[in-house]
Design goal:
Helix 1 runs antiparallel to helix 2 and helix 1 packs across helix 3. The mean pLDDT is about 85. The chain has a two-stranded antiparallel ribbon with strand order 1-4. A two-stranded antiparallel ribbon has the order 2-3. With about 80 residues, the chain is of the alpha+beta class.
């Protein structure tokens, strides 16, 4: 249930297209960073979110994960937008 709440909230944030970084940061007290990042990544994989710029390629534009690691070094939610 909580995952659906988080996923729905993330979609609302991207649909609003306003203050994405701040609104994603506001989720952190209620949800672990890993869950937020996983849901954003899943929404990207499902085609619900897309990159803002054609200059960037794939997930590396918004996620930086060292080779062979599950740990995220950098997360840039503002690089994505809702694909409506």
């Amino acid at each position: 249930m909580a995952e659906n709440v988080l996923r729905d909230r993330i979609l609302e944030i991207y649909k609003s297209d306003d203050g994405i970084n701040e609104k994603i940061a506001e989720l952190k007290p209620a949800f672990p960073d890993g869950e937020i990042i996983d849901d954003v990544e899943k929404l990207f994989d499902e085609g619900k979110l897309e990159l803002r710029s054609d200059d960037d390629s794939g997930k590396k534009a918004f996620l930086d994960r060292p080779e062979g690691s599950q740990e995220i070094t950098y997360f840039y939610p503002e690089k994505l937008k809702y694909k409506g």
